[in-house]
Amino acid sequence: MKCQKCKAEIPEGKIYCENCGAAIQMVPDYNPVDDITIETEEKSRDFLISTTEDHVPVTSVRSYCRKYWIAGIALILLGFSVFRMTYDSVRMTESVTSDMQFLSLLEKPTFSITPGMYDYSTEVAISHAEHNNGTIYYTTDGTTPDERSPIYRSPIQINEGLTIIRAVFIRFDGTSSEEADGTYEVVFDYPAEPVFSMAGGTYTQSFRVTITAEPDCKIYYTTNGEEPGPNTRLYRGSIEIPFGLTVLQAVAVDEEGGISGIVEAIYNIQ
User: Fold this and answer.
1) pLDDT tens, residue by residue, 116-141
2) What residue spans of the chain are helical by DSSP H?
3) Exposed e or buried b per residue across 142-165, where buried means at least 16 C-beta atoms within 10 angstroms of its C-beta
4) What is the pLDDT of residues 20-53, one digit of tens each?
5) Which of 70, 225, 238, 241 is paired with 53 by a 20 to 30 Å CA distance?
6) Which CATH number fits domain 110-186: 2.60.40, 2.40.50, 3.30.1490, 1.10.10?
7) Residue 190 in contact with residue 255, Cβ under 8 Å?
């Protein structure tokens, strides 16, 4: 044993140092740092032993941390991808639903005559491919047709002027078609008024009056003051004007039924 003070050798059994006279400390001083150091070394040893028994190299601890970090990044990317796919799927579903709602409308009714301008009266028939499974409703006053509108049963007469036809087909299950509409304008090409060979006035002797009109037109006339038309006398030759007062009126009617204005002459033969 050595003296803790002078480091001299102390014979066994002595309780003081013969060299410096210092008392010998039989129990060493307690140092808690030594216990902490020892405990740390034991835990490190146990960890090394456990990792060795589990066949995990000690140097792979950092590798584990790196792998967990990479796995976390991968999970974040995967979550974003799933969210994106879900979002796109919802948008596509909404788009398909909207398209299906649009496609659910039936085809619009069809008109027998193309809308446009005509110079004669005509009739327009309305049809639909599924006419046996529903009803056609129409209007001619510009309003939107629905189940409260007139039911189409026969062709619609188109006379002189402007006519707007709007029609819709509604199936018995309530499914409606697209609306069909057509604008028809009838403007008659009236023939010119007939022409008399003698102007009206006072004369001293009787004579005959010739009436002329445009080609392919018929002339109808009266001499009793009534309005001439297809139901009055048909002009076939010159008309004799007798003594007295005569009111001669005439119209021209073309092949399409167009009627000219009335021409009139008053003759007074004295």
Assistant:
1) 999 888 999 999 999 999 999 999 99
2) 32-53, 61-103
3) eeebeeebeebeeebebeeeebeb
4) 766 666 555 545 445 545 555 555 555 545 554 5
5) 70
6) 2.60.40
7) no
> CA-CA distance, 137 to 201, in Å (whole number)?
59
106: helix, strand or coil? strand
- Largest distance between two CA atoms of the chain: 194
pTM, rounded to two decimals = 0.45
- The DSSP symbol for 15 reads S
> What is the Rg, in whole angstroms, of the alpha carbon atoms belonging to the chain?
59
User: Rounded to an integer, what distance in angstroms lies between the CA atom of residue 98 and that of residue 6?
Assistant: 101
Q: Return the exposure string of 30-69: e unless at least 16 CB atoms fall within 10 Å of the residue's CB, then b.
A: eeeeeeeeeeeeeeeeeeeeeeeeeeeeeeeeeeeeeeee
